[in-house]
UniProtKB/TrEMBL annotation:
InterPro entries named in the record: FAM194_C
Domain FAM194 C-terminal: 1-174
Organism from which the protein derives: Anthoscopus minutus
Entry superkingdom: Eukaryota
Protein name, as recorded: ERIP6 protein
Length: 210
């Protein structure tokens, strides 16, 4: 950066390359993006929350509340329906931007003092039938209960924030939880329906997340 702080690091770990984009900070610089040559990449908001996450199957774009805004699948997957990628451009800060056009066209651009450097961190990873992810295993009773209690705790924290932000209001208790918590609750209920558990436990978990 013009400040002299290190902006981009490219290193090799075993058989893959890793590109790290750091924030313009002298001490304890935050990681703003991480790109790996095996097809996995993540970009982060300034507060450290996940912004964009990509794998060899595709990727997703999240807003700052944690809700998924967009999801896509790479076009080189095996034949079948898939959600195509619309080009994405984000600015990590005033000097570094990321443009995502395809799996092998992921560009990191650095612009400062009238000069520009551009790195293509994309990679063409073919997904064969042997490398397809196996169907998710059914979760057991303990795992489902842990997931349900996690969502419940997050819901309670959200209510506490509402109470602190609006201490004189009687409406905060009627506010709906964030969309990402509601979607997680629905997902847990779907996992319960697919799991081999008793109806009693299924009802108990439903009561926890609702």
């Amino acid at each position: 950066y013009p400040s002299g702080n290190l902006a981009i690091i490219i290193t090799r770990q075993r058989d893959q390359l890793i590109c790290i984009v750091q924030e313009d900070e002298r001490r304890t610089a935050k990681i703003r993006a991480l790109f790996q040559s095996d097809g996995r990449s993540t970009c982060y908001y300034p507060n450290g929350d996940e912004w964009i996450n990509m794998s060899i199957q595709g990727g997703q774009y999240l807003d700052q509340a944690g809700s998924r805004v967009r999801r896509w699948m790479w076009s080189n997957l095996l034949p079948g329906p898939h959600v195509p990628l619309s080009p994405i451009f984000i600015s990590l800060n005033r000097h570094v931007g990321v443009r995502i056009l395809a799996q092998d066209k992921i560009f990191v651009s650095f612009l400062a003092m009238g000069r520009q450097a551009k790195f293509n961190m994309g990679t063409k990873v073919q997904v064969s039938a042997a490398s397809q992810l196996p169907p998710p295993a059914q979760l057991g009773e303990d795992e489902l209960l842990l997931l349900a209690f996690r969502v419940r705790i997050l819901q309670l924290f959200d209510r506490m924030r509402g109470c602190l932000n609006f201490p004189s209001s009687v409406q905060w208790n009627k506010m709906q939880p964030p969309m990402y918590l509601m979607s997680q609750a629905v997902k847990i209920l779907e996992l319960c329906m697919a799991a081999d558990i008793s109806d009693e436990l299924r009802s108990y978990i439903k009561a926890i997340v609702n």
